[in-house]
Amino acid sequence: MNTGGRLIAGSHNRNEFVLINADESARIRSVEELSGQTCQICGDEIELGVDGESFVACNECAFPVCRPCYEYERREGNQSCPQCKTRYKRIKGSPRVEGDEEDDGMDDLDFEFDYRSGLESDTFSRRNAEFDLASVPPGSQIPLLTYGEEDVEISSESHALIVSPSPGHVNRYHQPHIADPAAHPRPMVPQKDLAVYGYGSVAWKDRMEEWKRKQNEKFQVVKHDGDSSIGDGDDAEIPMMDEGRQPLSRKVPIKSSKINPYRMLIVLRLVILGLFFHYRILHPVNDAYALWLISVICEIWFAVSWVLDQFPKWYPIERETYLDRLSLRYEKEGKPSELAAVDVFVSTVDPLKEPPLITANTVLSILAVDYPVDRVACYVSDDGAAMLTFEALSETAEFARKWVPFCKKYAIEPRAPEWYFCHKMDYLKNKVHPAFVRERRAMKRDYEEFKVKINALVATAQKVPEEGWTMQDGTPWPGNNVRDHPGMIQVFLGNNGVRDVENNELPRLVYVSREKRPGFDHHKKAGAMNSLIRVSGVLSNAPYLLNVDCDHYINNSKALREAMCFMMDPQSGKKICYVQFPQRFDGIDKSDRYSNRNVVFFDINMKGLDGLQGPIYVGTGCVFRRQALYGYDAPKKKKSPRMTCNCWPKWCLFCCGLRKNRKTKTTDKKKKNREASKQIHALENIEEGSKGTNNEVKSPEATQLKLEKKFGQSPVFVASAVMENGGLARNASPASLLREAIQVISCGYEDKTEWGKEIGWIYGSVTEDILTGFKMHSHGWRSVYCTPKIPAFKGSAPINLSDRLHQVLRWALGSVEIFLSRHCPIWYGYGGGLKWLERLSYINSVVYPWTSIPLLVYCSLPAICLLTGKFIVPEISNYASILFMALFGSIAVTGILEMQWGKVGIDDWWRNEQFWVIGGVSAHLFALFQGLLKVLAGVDTNFTVTSKAADDGEFSDLYIFKWTSLLIPPTTLLIINVIGVIVGISDAISNGYDSWGPLFGRLFFAFWVILHLYPFLKGLLGKQNRMPTIILVWSILLASILTLLWVRVNPFVAKGGPILEICGLDCL
To answer: Which residues form a coiled coil (predicted)?
Structure first.
């Protein structure tokens, strides 16, 4: 698609379509210059042939007719041209119809027996007109693995393999040889000689031998004796093949020596919990009944939360990928790559908060990824319509012409220049090219010049002109009004003649800013991602999508290949909706004070979910199957038919039939609901789905209306949505694609459709990622967790305390919104494909903010007990002591075993425990009240953050103090617990030796809270290389303790007061 390097802006609702010059030397061309020839019957664009010429149906008058209309006229009409009435001749590649000359010399073997359904619609014909189907003897059983269903009735002697083709191509199947002399491909006229068809001739034999050789190259199956199964589950019953046909990935279960003790300890901990609560409930504290009751309620809630978090980790697994097998299977020497195309989405909003240099590095790492350039397209969503982002992306495209060939020539890692040049590493390792050092220095200089240009753009954008921004040719920037602007699209790289400095093709780079108008709900990030789905569906329509945040660059250039090892696996790939990669971060302090790396979640919880139905979607670093985002159900596997015989009496068969009918009736409603979301391979083959009607077939018009109601009013996008393997219509002109692209990003396109409800990113929560993944799992899909040795993606995280708390606040707020919506996993999605342990994990992901209330109360109990002299536990007996020690011991050992099989350090585990308390009593608590106000009362509250200056230097952001209301609850807890410790120790010293025994339990409880809040205290007081501040604070605390002790003890006064005795002297 060549747009002449210009920005396309427009609004479908306002009927606006403008091509804006980005360069003064460019010339504005009309849209008609980009259009092609139009069919005079259906109005569609006429496709181009292999030679680049338009399709010609009639050789007499060349009346413009598209190929689908030509084939429909030959099959169903009068088989003649509408203009000159000349009978249509058969064109190579078209199926035969009655009346064709048998010896016209234009026959080809591939289409010899191409019998298609008479009810085939024009849209499906357009999609598959250029493909051939192998001839199949009638009556023979064809072992096929289709997208919608798997046929398990395939014998081990008749394996059928499917090679996933390139986008826009349908699957071709290899039919094993079945010897059946009685079967014929089609009835042949007995009066005609076989030589008419070419059978028996030398030419025919040569063609068949050539055809067999090609098929053997593509579908070679090597059978081995013995057991051919590998593993279990999704990897079962895989035939043993050569290296190029081996599975592309495999499961690596956790060693039994690690996982079995872990599972036994979980069961033991459940037993201990039961005994613990039995003791706690049957032994109340009468003199502190309220404290006892509150503590028991909190402990029961903590136990339920532990169960929700623990049992989804019952089946942890790891995975390995085989990139060499992927290359052997889909990248054969001397042939075009058959790897599937991938559309990459990058989202950004405000360039002043999300620096353009960071976004540029992310884009550069995508463009330089180790993947075929014609199979990668990068779409950047600018939801703020900022000219700064547009200009920065233009400079990025220019610098990519130098950076991309440099990375691929010398195998640079990572391929984000900022991180490549700043990392302290041996960049000469494994480099043998003599020109590498010279070219690296030159590239570093070019990148520094590029950074200066970006910094100049940022400095210019600090002050907005009164008249708004203008482009180079004087045209006003269409996005000057952020809340009211048309949609904008700019193709910077790809298919417009722009190549790199070595004259190689570059991946496509597209700038997209969706239309925004007042009065429309644009749904923030979820709405922007859905706009990118539609734009990419119109312009490239790759079968797979990768979404990354603007600050998450590709750290491993083979990340896409890692994902394709799962997605393109012929055995299990069809069931996978997305491949999730862990999030890794740069720029975090070594101690990871606020658990920014979140290692426990990514290395323990996610591995546990991978053993169930797959990990949850975490918002970035995820490769999707486009069809799964379109709301289709996962492919189902047929069950083997039950064995029947004729030896049973009729009455028994009648009873069995009634039982079968009852079962059919109970499942009929479920099947009817699933019918709407089945994979659509042919628009004309969708059943009515209503009970009691005949097996009628919908007309193409009714099917088109149904699809438009689901996907929107864009015929081009609707046609792309039903293509399982992606691809575009070959007869689409650039002008029509541009019009459709502007239409699908219009602000009213989603009205009265299923976007955001069943299709794409789901609306209704600020954490749209959890909701979107939950919907796909509810449709029966499974996901995969891929953890390559070199992290696939790396990003930046807020290491400052206040920023970290606000990040956690946003996540918790989204969970509260999901909990209060109809999509809550507690009551949504039953009867679908969601497994019960997977459901527990989703319930835990939306329930955890509610834990903030019992956690806050429980952390306040130690101070109350110390101040009042009461306690939540009665006098501890030997039995109670054993229970408490067993409970604490099981908690500690469970954590140790998790760290062992999850390969997590004890420091990361302890930081996670600390921040669970810090975030629970601050961000989670505020998110709970904010969510309740937003959902129930419609009140949207925000928490302001005030910054103060910080020192420069490494990790300087860690020591910036930003006051926010989120800091109030943990600060209060710290103060009251410290005061409680002071008062408790003072009281014990004052009351004597007997009071120290009961004090130890209260002090242990209080110190448990203080230790968990210690990183929070450091965040309030600590600064790098300035320890006197902490020393000063602790000195003040120590002085306070000594002062209170002095006042409380008072050594000059006896404990019971002054003792007065009669001295025996008469003073009077």
So the answer is: none
| 544-549 and 552-554 beta bridge pairing | unpaired
- Of 603, 769, 803, 908, the catalytic one is 769
Q: Name the band, by pLDDT with cuts 50, 70 and 90, for residue 1017.
A: confident
Which residues face 785 on adjacent strands?
580
The residue-averaged pLDDT of 701-722 equals: 85
Burial 84-113 (b: 16+ CB within 10 A, else e): eeeebbbbebbbbeeebeeeeeebeeebeb
CB contact burial 356-380 (16+ within 10 A = b; e otherwise) = bbbbbbbbbbbbbbbbbbbbbbbbb
Q: Which of 1032, 852, 993, 1001 is nearest to 924 (CA)?
A: 852
Residue tagged active-site, from 383, 549, 592, 633: 383
Residues 6+ positions from 205 with CB-CB distance below 8 Å: none
% of the chain surpassing 70 pLDDT: 69
Instruction: Tokens 């490549």: give the residue.
Output: 420
Say how far apart CA 949 and CA 947 lie, in whole Å: 7
pLDDT in tens, 167-184: 344 343 344 443 444 444
Q: How far is Cα of residue 421 from the mean position of the Cα atoms in its chain?
A: 30
Q: Could you identify the residue written with the tokens 């010897």?
A: 179
11 SS3 class: strand
CA torsion sign for 209, 211, 212, 214 is positive
Residue 931 near residue 849 (C-beta atoms within 8 A): yes
Structure-token match 């749904």, residue found = 523
Residue 951's CB: how many other CB atoms inside 10 A?
12
551 is an active site residue: no
Three-state DSSP state, 534? helix
Q: Residue 517 is encoded by which pair of tokens? A: 């108008």
Percent of the chain whose predicted confidence (pLDDT) is above 90: 27
- CB-neighbour burial class of residue 676 (10 A; exposed 0-12, middle 13-18, buried 19+): middle
Q: Answer yes or no: 549 catalytic.
A: no
> Which residues, 6 or more positions from 953, have their beta carbon under 8 angstroms from its beta carbon?
1024
Q: Which amino acid is at 92?
A: K
What does the pLDDT look like over 1041-1066, one tens digit per residue? Answer: 655 655 555 443 444 555 555 655 56
* Amino acid identity at 258: K
What does the radius of gyration of the chain's CA atoms come to, in whole angstroms?
Answer: 35
Six token digits for residue 800: 């400052």
Q: Provide the CA 653 distance to its chain's centre, in angstroms.
A: 50
- Give residue 791's identity as a one-letter amino acid code: P
CA-CA-CA-CA torsion for 212, 216, 221, 223, nearest 10 degrees?
60
Mapping DSSP onto H, E and C, the string for 604-629 reads HHHHHHHCCCCCCCCCCCEEEEHHHH
User: SS3 for 430?
Assistant: coil
3-state DSSP assignment of residue 568: coil
The tokens describing 531, both together, are: 């706009």
Cβ(83)–Cβ(61) below 8 Å: yes
Q: Are 620 and 793 in contact (CB under 8 A)?
A: yes
